[in-house]
Amino acid sequence: MRTASIEKTTCYHCGDDCLTPNYVVEQKQFCCLGCKSVFEVLSESKLCSYYSYNDHPGINRANADRKFDYLNEPDIVNELIDYKDDNLTIVTFYIPQIHCSSCLWLLEQLNKMNPAIHYARVDFLKKQINIRFNHHNLNLQQLVELLYNIGYEPVISLQDIIKKQNAPIKDNLVQKIAVAGFCFGNVMLLSFPEYFGISIYEQGFRHFFGWLNILFALPVVFYSGWGYFVSARQNLHVKVLNIDFPLALGIGILFVRSIVDVAINNDPGFTDTLCGLVFFLLIGKYIQKKTYHHISFERDYRSFFPVAVNVLIDDIEKPIPLAQLQTGQRIIIRNNEIIPADAILLKGRAMVDFSFVTGESIPIGKTLGEIIYAGGRQTGEAIELEVIKSVSQSYLTQLWNNEAFTTQKNGSSKTFNEKVSKYFTIVLLAIAFGSLLIWLPFNAGRGLAAFTAVLIVACPCALALSTPFTMAAALSIFDRNLFYLKNTRVIEQMAAINTIVMDKTGTITNGDTNGIELNGKFTALQKQLIYSACVNSMHPLSRMICDHLGDQKRLPVNSYNEFAGKGIIANVGNHRLKIGSSKLVFGYAIETPGNTTIYISIDGSYLGYVTIKHNYRTGMDDIAGLNSAYDMFLLSGDQDHERENLLQFFKKPEHLYFDQSPQGKLDFILSLQNEGKRIMMIGDGLNDSGALKQSDFGIAVSDNVNNFSPGSDAIMDGRSFKKLPSFLRFSKDAVNIIHLSFIISLTYNIIGLSYAVSGRLSPLIAAILMPLSTVTIILFTTLATHFAAKKRNLL
Q: CA torsion angle for 116, 119, 123, 126 (degrees, to 10)?
């Protein structure tokens, strides 16, 4: 009796067995109609290179469920989207199917599948995708169906899963560390007799202990350390040689060499070194992971941005921390303030700049009762809003890193670790293969021993650990001192700067009203008019005037315009006010040496002026000491009334620039960069956003007001301004610690390689060198970072 045989083939898309030959396209077989449909979508969009990144990267589409009709309900759509205007909608989805580099590549090519999609960016660690699309040509249901059709159905929850999903992705890292640590401890215990010598009567235990150690190494390699093999394979697919490749190679060589030594040579092998390597590498990865979450908005928002919002309680304005803002509360947003949460416009004329969200800088007018989305910046009079959604911390994190606002100014720069790891890998492989080729003609066995020994000893464990341990400690110290960095990469950017450019008002000056004086005869009504105009502004001078006038009745503002570096023109009631520089009020400049002067006219009649004697921030004398190490510049939108006073802090008169517009500040930064200078820009986040964005390292100084600037690389609480010299020195210390740890690692490698290339590396030497170098790096980076912080008075 003849039995029919069925030739098994695998699905070209997902890799499952094909049980039917019915689904074939372009001589490629698929397991179901779903996988076949996905391939056809990719083929029509000319995106079949998706399959070159990984073998069978797709997800099986056999269980089709297209019931997404509920996404046409406006109430549901409004709960899911992040932002919407006349043409553009932005939404963030959680997609658990994201698992490899081909997923990332495909999802970021959505705009090629449908031109209505403008932009798609994947956060691989959080498995989230941020998509911007034209809702006239593509609705939310069609977008979700497109994602489903290519195998990436988003998880959609009406409980706002994107914004509440703060738990890190489960990767079992803690369990992997526990397994590696358990096995490492037992292998070390079983290896003690080998370390101290085994008598001739105990030789039988040597072979037994060797095989027992191999058993302990199995879960270490195939469970705890397997991620390094996966990462190395995926990166090789996209032709990237990262540090995971030599790590995976070292782990594999250690394991194979140990089996050969135990099985053939009756030697103990290198299992203790193997288990110790994986254990310490996973600890480093855990530290790096904690650092990542530390610098994301998953942590308490109040500890990251010193930002407050003004809430109306019984018609009394009260600032509260942003994290305490609740749905239903009424908030006041002034000119240049960012709207922190989705809210309904209740009062005022809203002209909102959504450039931080969309990249478009043209203000959009909003009518009473209309929803204004978080992330917009008000550019006119003060407005009142009612919060309808709680503050989305993860969304504001995304805003800070928004590619629509930030340029790739640092895209070409690589960290020290990224630069070194590539060359380290190349040199390591060259030495390993060189040792093999040198010994091969004379002694093939010794050549193979030398080859494996080089990969064992020179495994870049210390290099992989030095950066995460150092940067984690550095970020913790910066945060403790109210200096909040965007990410770990910017520490090296900060250390590399050689030129410092500062704004004046609100940056090196504070809002103390002791030095303010109102000159002229003003009636009670006129003071109310001035207050009602200035209260709409977040500029430090306007706030000082309001504080000086005290509580005044706010009169209705019919129109309001604020001109950066010039002043305010507003219609309050039936009166027209001009408050600002002489150019704004009179049309020409007036020389008034000494203090800052703000002129006031009402209904075309000049009434008087306000003089402000600025009080400079505490610590300006210390910051003046930076003149010896850095080129120091001042860029101010004010006139040069205080030039003489400022020369005590900026030693070169030609480095003081006044009457600068926001665009002028940006152009000045660019001109310095064209001269090869690396610029740190320090501003208050109001009129300096362009300069902060253009600089190599931008710091926005905050005094508990909502002047959050997505273009900055760091936010510094005004109370820590005096510590800027210490921050700069400490950033250099952190980079030097990484360099020194690499030198320590290199020293260990040179010592080990002197044994390795001879082909006579013993397991005992490897067992000593590997953990010793790792422990040395961990102790050195941790202790050195804290020592440097104490030296800089940051602890």
A: -30
